[in-house]
Design a protein that fits this description.
- With about 200 residues, the protein is an alpha+beta fold.
- It contains 5 helices and 10 strands.
- The N terminus is likely disordered.
Amino acid sequence: MMKKINLNLAAICLTVGIAIMTGCAAGNYSPISELSESKDKSKSYIVKPGDILNIQVWGEPKVSGEAVVRQDGRFSIPLVDEVQAEGRSLTEITNDLVSKLSEFIPSASVNISLNQSSAIVYYLTGTFAKPGEFRTDKQVTILQAIATGGGFAPFANKSNLVLIRKSGENEKRYRLSYEKIIEGLQPNPQLETGDILSVQ
């Protein structure tokens, strides 16, 4: 009787252990819904290093002109030493610039537009036909990136795509399926600089 109880207890422990391990593994992946949310947010362009901005201050040609966002995420124009641009929308940068210029130009009318976006750098790893580093000056979705990489190599597990994306100092991982993206059951988000798309 004792042996039977021990065996049942061992079976329960094994089941619980597997459940915990499965839960931990699932916990390593972020919810795919975040990718749909980021797609909606992309309507408001977020500035990044290397972008070239066109700054127009009405009636002030000496302050107007192009500004390149440096690798530290900032740019400079006459009268204003440093303006933080990386990670902000054009509207946020405009409001900040108006505030900084108010000391010199009260009620300044400022318009900021994007002249040129810096290249998006992403990586394909694993069993793609052409894995490696890719650069593009235009927005690119997961499906477009896969096509650029020549599609999948033989025996690739298309149902096991992993998108690795930087999130501050950390990384987020999203498990996706090529077939579900094609069918519209999962999002087909635009890639961001530094994204890694992997397939086994």
